[in-house]
Amino acid sequence: MSLYRDEGIVLRTHKLGEADRIVTVLTRRTGKVRGVAKGVRRTMSRFGARLEPFTHVDLQLHNGRTLDVITQAETIHPYGEALVHDYPRYTAGSAMLETADRLIMGEKEPALRQFLLLVGGLRTLGSGGHEPRLVLDAYFLRSLAVAGYAPALEACARCKAPAVRAFAIVAGGVVCGACRPAGSAVPAGETIALMSALLKGDWATADASEGRHRAECSGLVAAYLQWHLEHGIRSLRHVEREPASSTTLD
Ligand SMILES: [Zn+2]
């Protein structure tokens, strides 16, 4: 039996048998880990309380035959506390956890940049300094970029021409008039500029954006993310979004 320590963000938990729980954690060094927390549902255990989604925990585990067993958990930061009484922030945070879980498919494959992005995203969300939808879209764009799916935003995704006029999910971002596939969206230039600002972390530009461009940006980012994940993300349905009425399809 070999022990190891790591820290991570609890992504989700589910019941195992009468008293145990399986806890999925995105850790700093080990990547995504699923561990069994024994006996946490039998009592009102503080151990179990530390293993709730959103919590940044320091863990001790031992390698099991199928699942590792969590033997100790200490709270580093309970990110959920800042989110739980604020519905838009809570749903945005839930969508982040679910996206991290689905984008990082392999277990025990180190994913340090994804871990740091998630910690940064939860911290920014909890601090309340930016609109939750902007924080979520920035997280989506950057986690997609880390996973190798950054959308092209500066030049045509297909031919690299600098003059672009549409956004095509199947092409991987903005496209020129010649490369534009049927059914691509024609967003406002400000919407593409907002996506670019969120991807780069340019909060001054993002915070100054108008609501209609934020709505259009959210719609495009959500569609782009879902296309890459192949299946819809359940939490996304609960994130409050204004209709992206300015988006025209042709
Ligand atoms: Zn082109």
TrEMBL record:
<comment type="function">
    <text>Involved in DNA repair and RecF pathway recombination.</text>
</comment>
<dbReference type="InterPro" id="IPR022572">
    <property type="entry name" value="DNA_rep/recomb_RecO_N"/>
</dbReference>
<keyword id="KW-0227">DNA damage</keyword>
<feature type="domain" description="DNA replication/recombination mediator RecO N-terminal">
    <location>
        <begin position="1"/>
        <end position="79"/>
    </location>
</feature>
<dbReference type="InterPro" id="IPR012340">
    <property type="entry name" value="NA-bd_OB-fold"/>
</dbReference>
<keyword id="KW-0233">DNA recombination</keyword>
<keyword id="KW-0234">DNA repair</keyword>
<dbReference type="InterPro" id="IPR037278">
    <property type="entry name" value="ARFGAP/RecO"/>
</dbReference>
<protein>
    <recommendedName>
        <fullName>DNA repair protein RecO</fullName>
    </recommendedName>
</protein>
<dbReference type="Pfam" id="PF11967">
    <property type="entry name" value="RecO_N"/>
</dbReference>
<dbReference type="InterPro" id="IPR003717">
    <property type="entry name" value="RecO"/>
</dbReference>
<dbReference type="Pfam" id="PF02565">
    <property type="entry name" value="RecO_C"/>
</dbReference>
<dbReference type="InterPro" id="IPR042242">
    <property type="entry name" value="RecO_C"/>
</dbReference>
<comment type="similarity">
    <text>Belongs to the RecO family.</text>
</comment>
